[in-house]
Amino acid sequence: LPQNSVIAMTQTRDGYLWLGTLGGLVRFDGIRFTVFDESNTPGLKSSRIVSLFEDSRGNLWVGTETAGVALVKDGQITNFRIGQGTREGRLAAVCEDALGAVWLYTMDGQLWRHQNGTTNVFRVGAGQSSRCRALIREQSGLLWIGTDRRLSAFDPTQDHNPPALKFIEDGPVNRLDFLLASRSGGFWRLAEGRIQKWTAQGRGRDNTLRGAADTEE
User: Which of 74, 112, 120, 188 could form a disulfide with 180 if both were Cys (CB 3.0 to 4.6 A apart)?
Assistant: First the structure.
């Protein structure tokens, strides 16, 4: 590896394992590591990789620390100014909605939507510091946005005119750390030091971090 801090990791549909490090983007084929950085990859503007996501079309989204977001499509790189310039604007979470739009959430509270070649930005928690920026799509199709103090949901299939979003659910939460969509519907959340399963009917399973592990996911 070019650098021993692995910040992000994903496996793409072609079987490759991709690693984001502070010394470059790394592809692992099960035998060897191939490093892509500013010196050998035209279009990659930074070797400090902090986020990785593959969309349903096989495109790889690469979030850098301060140089914005790069889209790797058919071997070509397209750069977006999303989060460019400061570490506080780096990409924190990514998901894709049922219509194929890719949503990207940055640490400074900007939510970007990329659909059919057009990119729009919504301000969700911008100007409010948060150590957590979570973004998931649950089985119902709703997208959930989380900070360490608030959890909100919206339907991405409805019309949303930037910079505002129409929230279906919106409420406070204390010390949110992580969200994970459940394959059986609803989502898991780590908040207040507890692991909780949430469904359309409300909160269900509730374990402390020292409790029994659940293997559903």
Answer: 188
Quick: pLDDT tens for 160-204: 988 889 999 999 999 999 999 999 999 999 999 999 999 876 665
Q: Do residues 61 and 49 make contact, with C-beta atoms less than 8 angstroms apart?
A: no
Going by the DSSP 8-state scheme, the letter that residue 200 receives in this structure is T
Closest CA to 37 of 10, 59, 19: 19
| C-alpha–C-alpha distance, residues 1 and 3, integer Å | 5
Half-sphere exposure for 42 (CA within 13 Å, toward CB): 2
CB 137 within 8 A of CB 96: yes
Distance CA 151, CA 147 (A): 6
Q: What own/partner pairs with CB < 8 Å and gap ≥ 24 does 33-38 have?
A: 33/1, 35/1, 35/2, 37/2
- The single-letter DSSP state of residue 87 is G
149 forms beta bridges with none
Dig out the tokens for 16 from the structure. 């490759």
What whole-number distance in Å separates Cα of residue 62 and Cα of residue 53? 7
Look at residue 208 and tell me whether its pLDDT is greater than 60: no
User: Token pair 């790394």 is at which residue?
Assistant: 26
